[in-house]
Amino acid sequence: MGGSMRFVVLLLGLAVPQLTAAAAAATNPLLESGPFPRWSEIRAEHVVPAVGQVLAEESASLDLLEQDLTRALKDGSLSFDRVFLPLTQIRLRLDAVTGHFDHLSAVLDSPALRAAVEATDPMRTLFALRLGQSKAIYDALNALSSTAALRSRLNAAQQRLLSITLTDYRNNGVGLPPAERARMKTIAMKLQKLSTNYTNNVMDATKAFKMLVTDKQKLDGLESSTLAVAAQKAKAAGHKNATTERGPWLLTLDFSTYAAIMSFAKDRALRKTAFTTYKSLASSGKTDNTPIIRQILEYRREFAGLLGYPNYAEQSFSTKMATFKEANDLLNEVARDARPAAKQEEAQLTAFARKATGNPSLQLQWWDTGFWAERQKEALFKVRQEELREYLPVDSVVQGLFKVGD
């Protein structure tokens, strides 16, 4: 069988799991291959079976790809598409499934969903390592890069993708001795667990903050849409008679509520409470992320050292267009050049706030700047965010997004 025919057979083999997934999607919405996720139908019990099926299918696809690339290296039929088309299919298939429940975990966390996602973490990490440490794929990438005849056929974008992917594989430890690869696997598993714990702590600390407000004067300045959401939260928490106008209102630290408080709440003490709590989330008590951060830094340092990098930053920048030094120098340049303008704007904002409050000695704090910047914008441009809402109904915005996409 010729090289081209074997490549067609390989792609057909990769397509078989898609047919299997299509049949399974009838009972598991995470396996749906349509353009939009079936969000309302996804349940925690769908997560583990979906990941198990996809990993089994993509492991088989990876076996086929490795066998095909080994043959292609021997018979000289290697090409860019022969490596990257199947490799991209494998990556996208898994990302399509995991991306859905990872997103749900971030916006609709629950004990059942969290447990299901955590159960899949080791499986996903091990597969990612197997894919990233594939000797057959690495050898094929190396051949594309080092063989002049093959490299000359690639355009600039393909050469860039090849270079980045090759570095990714090296950073996965594919060229290391077995003992060091094994240590990298251990570190990767630990980092995955630490990352999950870090995220869970932030979510738990965020959900732990609840402020029930019964005095509407304390919420003066907040827009009606924010009050409506706060009343709904109070009602869900057991205050059955809560209304937008009469309360009570339950304030939380989800970002939309936090941003509204910082931009519109006239009560300075409320803004300070929201700011200091939000900025210190997961920094004490049962949700303290401090020891987790230290462990992550230590494991990243060791991981980078195994690869020959002086630190994790250098490893991270190895696949980026800028070097660590260039990025650091740019940040320092921007800070230096922007500082005079920032100080001028700070002085203008302070002067505006002092005039508005009649307090000539007012010193703006971190929890004041967002509020007074919004008031200054309203004074300058004669417009409020709430007034813009009637011009941006959700249906029209969604339709507009699709028109832009077309």
List its salient traits.
single chain; 17 helices; globular; mainly alpha; two-stranded antiparallel ribbon; 406 residues
Secondary-structure blueprint:
Layout: H1 3-24, H2 47-75, H3 80-107, H4 111-132, H5 135-146, H6 148-151, H7 156-171, H8 178-208, E1 211-213, H9 224-236, E2 249-251, H10 255-264, H11 268-279, H12 290-306, H13 312-317, H14 324-357, H15 366-381, H16 385-388, H17 394-405
Antiparallel strand pairs: 1-2
Helix pairs in contact: 1-2, 1-3, 2-3, 2-4, 2-5, 4-8, 5-7, 8-12, 10-15, 14-15
What does the model show?
It is built from 17 helices and 2 strands. The chain is mainly α and 406 residues long. The longest helix has 34 residues, at 324-357. It starts with a helix and ends with a helix.
> pLDDT below 50 for ≥5 consecutive residues: which ranges?
1-9
Main beta sheet: strand number and arrangement? 2 strands, antiparallel
Rg over alpha carbons: 27 Å
Give the mean pLDDT: 90
Summary, kept brief:
By secondary structure, the protein is an all-alpha fold. It has helices at 3-24, 47-75, 80-107, 111-132, 135-146, 148-151, 156-171, 178-208, 224-236, 255-264, 268-279, 290-306, 312-317, 324-357, 366-381, 385-388, 394-405; strands at residues 211-213, 249-251. Helices cover 71% and strands 1% of the residues.
